[in-house]
From TrEMBL:
Lineage: Eukaryota, Metazoa, Chordata, Craniata, Vertebrata
PROSITE patterns: FN3, IG_LIKE
Homology family: Belongs to the immunoglobulin superfamily. Contactin family.
Region (Disordered): 231-255, 430-451
Protein's name in the database: Contactin 5
Topology term for the membrane: Lipid-anchor; GPI-anchor
Amino acid sequence: MLLRNNALRIINSSRSDEGNYVCRAENRFGSSEMTAMLWVKAEAMRVDLSPSRVEVTVGESVVLSCRVSHDPSLDVAFQWLLNQQPLNFQQEGGHFEYTQTQASTVDLMIRTILLKHAGKYGCRVQTSADTVFAEAEVLVRGPPGPPGVVIVEEITDTTATLSWSGGVDNHSPISSYNLQARSPFSLGWQTLRTDPDPVTGDMESAMAVELNPWVDYEFRVVASNAIGTGDPSAPSRGVRTKEAVPSVAPANVSGGNGRRHELVISWEPVSEEFQNGDGFGYIVAFRANGTRGWKEKMVTSADSTTYKYRDETFPPLTPFEVKVGVYNNKGDGPFSGVVTVYSAEGEPREVPSEVKASSISSSEIKVTWRPPNPGPGRPMGYEVTYWKDSEQEESGKKRTAGNETSMVLTGLEGNRVYLITVRGFNSIGQGPASTASTARTRKDPPVQPPDNLVWIQEGTNISLNWDPVKSKDNESDVIGYKVLLSQEGRVHHQVVRTITTSAVLSLPEGGTYVIEVRAVSEGGEGAASSQVRVLTSSGVRVKSGQCSVHSLLPWGLTWTTALLLSVPLVPSASW
């Protein structure tokens, strides 16, 4: 059939129609022609996509298989589509995989399927002769979508009536709804109780109960089905529950301490979440043990934690029954349980006994005492005051000793009489001072150092001799000497004490050692002699009988020698 546009249409083609077809055009100027070759294939192409409809759950995997039958002389090309749009395998995060198992079969693997992968999948197959197309439907079951916006229909002091519109069920019926709320006092969203029963899937309204009065809330709803729980709805607008009488009493009511004649009552403040309205405050009630009527005092600050009541008539450590209640503009709330609180004990009233002072050295005096008998006004610590007999007590220096019963006063002047008192103190104040005790510091130690220090080295020993130190009239008498041997770079040292003017030292391991001598008196240690420095080295030993004699000149000339020393270094010994 020749069509109007000069196209040739062949109907019900057969093998006999194969061949070359020539189209020639002519006019008075000449002619032009083109040739087209026609092949007629014995079999039309057919495609089968299976399964044609499939239901899967989120997270599962599915395979769609596209099989084609065609003339084997033709090449085929496959293309996959989702909802009429070509699949982009690179942009789908590995969810789609294309596999050609045979020349005429191509599989599409959908791994860990998501809700967004639901739809109609198409397989388009094309040859040079024709194009065929087949579709399959994939339904993805999953948790429900988010419900519609939550509307607060009614609000009271402890309830909220809520409604919402249902979201998509994602091919699994919604079985229940979960109501949630948050407030400035909650850590994120909290699940609410509903009245009278849990919210089932065929309901889209409910009443939330057990809310706190006078609190700002936002609400949302989460739907669930057999697959799981979906995303929550958008939050409702913020609403505040109505005011109500307080229902929570203060916790941890206690007290004590304070100043003389004071009753101090303390408690933990009630959180704003439980104040239930404006005008919140506390009612502090108390009565002395054994009395009937309660004294009540209003505390108007919601942040208050203490109340102090002063009465000159009650003695220290009077027991009181105490309770603390709450109120707001709607009325009075509950009281806490009754506890016993004692009034302040007052400052110490007894003086420490058996105060004794004894001199230790020219700059130290030791003071000891016994604490007063137990009772009201117990000391938390002690204060020691001391002054020279030529001064007034008001100019004395003070030192505290905590709860100790002894103290060493240091930094004192030598050969001076000091007066010393001790008194107790606590958080209320100070108690009376003891009668002043006296003690004289000892005379200062000698100023003159040991002179003419001579040392003899034999083997691993050093023998020392020096001139005796003579004390002046204003100095303490010498009762002995202290010889100190120390190694440079170390904190340990060896101390030898002697009542004579000589000593023998055992030298330890190799190194540089310093030797000095001090006079010792009742007033303390005197000035140090000039130092002797001895350099020794390991691995060298002085032969038996060999010795060295050195004299330390007054201007401190130092001699050194090399010896093998193996005696261990020992710490300083006490006198």
